Amino acid sequence: MTSATTDPMLGRLIDGRYQVKSRIARGGMATVYVATDLRLDRRVAIKVMHGHLADDEVFRERFVREARSAARLAHPNVVNVFDQGQDSDMAYLVMEYLPGMTLRDLLRERGRLGIEQAVDVMDAVLGGLAAAHKAGIVHRDLKPENVLLADDGRIKIGDFGLARAASANTATGQALLGTIAYLSPELLTRGVADTRSDVYAAGIMFSEMLVGAQPFTGDQPMQIAFKHANEPMPVPSSANPEVPEGLDDLILWATVKDPEERPADAKEMLDRLREVEAGLGIVRHAGTASQRTMLLPPEALGPSPDDRSTTVFTAPSVPAEEAAAEAAGPEATVQLVARKARRRRARGWWLLVAVLVVAAGLGGTGWWYSAGPGSMTTIPTLAGSAPDSALAQLQEMGLKPDQRQQTSPTVAAGTVIDTDPPGGTSIRSGSAVTVIVSSGPAMLAVPTLAGLAEADARAAITAAGFTAGTSTTQFSSDVASGVVIAATDPSGTALGSEYGEQQTIDLVVSLGAVPDVTGQTLDEAKAALGAVGLVATEGAQDYNEDVPEGSVYQATVQTDPVRPGDSVVLDVSRGPAPVPVPNVEGLTRDEAKQALQAVGLVPVYSVFWDAIPNALTKVQSVSPSVGTSVKKGTNVNLGITASG
Question: What burial class does residue 363 get, using C-beta atoms within 10 Å of its C-beta: 0-12 exposed, 13-18 middle, 19+ buried?
Fold first, then answer.
């Protein structure tokens, strides 16, 4: 914690208006300073949110909610809020400055308060709380730290940081932001708070003022919470015999476990407190009810642990009966004392009977809430278990389970989804619990996806209530590139007309036809296939009459369907097959010519021999020689002679 001497806020001018003078206190959410409002020339208290929380939307919302909640209240027992704003990265709240101490400080110094002192404080607290409840605000964090005792005798409630509208009963996780020692059973077990939760906290705080200790204590917060939810409220007079029966009854009424049996709000509790005050002879005038509390000087209270010896008191009043006896003389006073002694003895017997009755009732209540039908149990987390096992476990715990089917896109059919109330909830023994069992996902109609462009198909999948999965590609000579060929489930099985809600649909998308590489050179064919993700491998080399040597005459795919990464075998032409030179020796010129051309060879001889009649010519020699294998189109030289 930063010391006051090095606090960078000291001396800072906030929002051009509030000059920070000194630090009052520091809490988990904010630091409170004394400041001067330069515009109105008055001292104020300014609460500044810690810097590391300024970016947290939840804390900022809570900070603003405190300002708005308190600003709605105009009551002498509620701390006034003047302003709220943001200066650079700093959120702040400007409040009424009340020099003095908190009720917690007073209890630390004095242990417990006198009866009239405690009644005075509680009267003021309930007055401010009643105004909040009337305005539709639940404080939700009532405790001695939030009750301010000003030096001039005023008593005010502050810190509405957890306040919510009275109709917004759900507390959720923020319920436990309040001090555990003052939280009502319903707030601890169900996270629900309303005006009766504030009444419960007021009752606990009233008991602490009269007894000097909290009614429920423990080493761990959960131990205290368990006692609030399950153990009976201790009777204050059992720890402090000076507590009158009327205050015992009021506190027990305010702290009943069942909120339905408590006062509906602080106003109802305040009305009952005023009745008890009248019975105790405490006179409260309507016009000054909130102003009766004063601060005792140190010498009036005797020795104290330290110099902070301020406490709260109410100026004592003389009962009318005593005043009349004093005026009548000593004899009347003696008679009055005797009558009072008889009344005290009679009241002692009645008090003993009342204590025995209360003890018996508390004993029965203890059995009811600890081992009897009113005892609480926590529902286990059963999600993911088998239904029969879940039902048996709940029955063994003394609960009344039943079963209900519910569709679920994420939980397998025949598996427990959750319970109602959910796992972790505390409920009374014998209560009904519903086990919710998955019947699998709801079945929905599958749209026609084949023939759509991939992007359109994915949009159709989402619109129909399914999840678009992966897309695989393959070559197709029948479907254009980028168009869906088929839709399947993740296992590759084709879909029917219906499919499970939110389940995954995968797509098969066409890449178009495999490129035709016949007639291309081997290198050209490899490059063309590689460009579309196929792997070219060399196959056979053979003679081909139609394809030039070195070119692909056949490309064969190895898989069906064909996908990127698959192989294509390329067969390469060696050109036309060779032929042997036929034996044309002894034939006439034209006969030899026809024989060579018939096998694809080219006869070559001197032009001179064309001028001689064919019948007079004879082939005398052949080159290349007869029987030599040569390529088609090869020239064969003929040696011709004249005959006859």
Answer: exposed
Q: Which amino acid is at 132?
A: A
pLDDT at 161: 53
First to last CA, the chain: 136
Q: How confident is the model at residue 49 (pLDDT cuts 50, 70, 90)?
A: confident
From 3.40.109.10, 3.40.190.10, 3.30.10.20, 3.40.50.1980, which CATH number describes the 443-510 domain? 3.30.10.20
DSSP 503-521: -EEEEEEE--PPP--TTSB
Query: Which DSSP symbol is given to 464?
Result: T
pLDDT of residue 283: 67
Q: Tell which wins on pLDDT, 1 or 160.
A: 160
The CATH topology of domain 4-96 is Phosphorylase Kinase; domain 1 (3.30.200)
What whole-number distance in Å separates Cα of residue 414 and Cα of residue 144? Answer: 53
Its CATH architecture, for the domain 522-573, is 2-Layer Sandwich (3.30)
Residues marked active site are found at: 141
List, in sequence order, every residue forming a beta bridge with 639; answer none if it has no partner: 621
**pTM flag (> 0.85):** no
Mean pLDDT of 407-420: 90
- Quick: pLDDT tens for 257-302: 999 999 999 999 999 999 999 988 876 644 434 443 333 333 333 3
Q: Cα–Cα distance between 39 and 22 in angstroms, integer?
A: 19
Distance between CA atoms of 105 and 119, rounded to whole angstroms?
18
Rounded to an integer, what distance in angstroms lies between the CA atom of residue 224 and that of residue 215? 10
The Cα 321–Cα 281 span in angstroms is 11
pLDDT the model gives residue 335: 53
Q: What is the pLDDT of residue 371?
A: 47
User: Any idea which fold 100-317 has?
Assistant: Transferase(Phosphotransferase); domain 1 (1.10.510)
**Domain 379-438: CATH class, spelled out:** alpha beta
Q: How far apart are CA 109 and CA 212, in angstroms?
A: 10
Positions of E strands within 546-616: 552-557, 567-573, 579-580, 602-604
In the chain, what is the greatest distance between 2 CA atoms, to the nearest angstrom? 195
The listed CATH number (3.40.190.150, 2.40.50.140, 3.40.50.720, 3.30.10.20) that belongs to domain 579-642: 3.30.10.20
Backbone phi, then psi, for 24, in 5-degree steps? -95, -50
Three-class SS of residue 148? strand
Query: Is 506 within 8 Å of 470 (Cβ atoms)?
Result: yes
Of residues 419 and 343, the one with the higher pLDDT is: 419
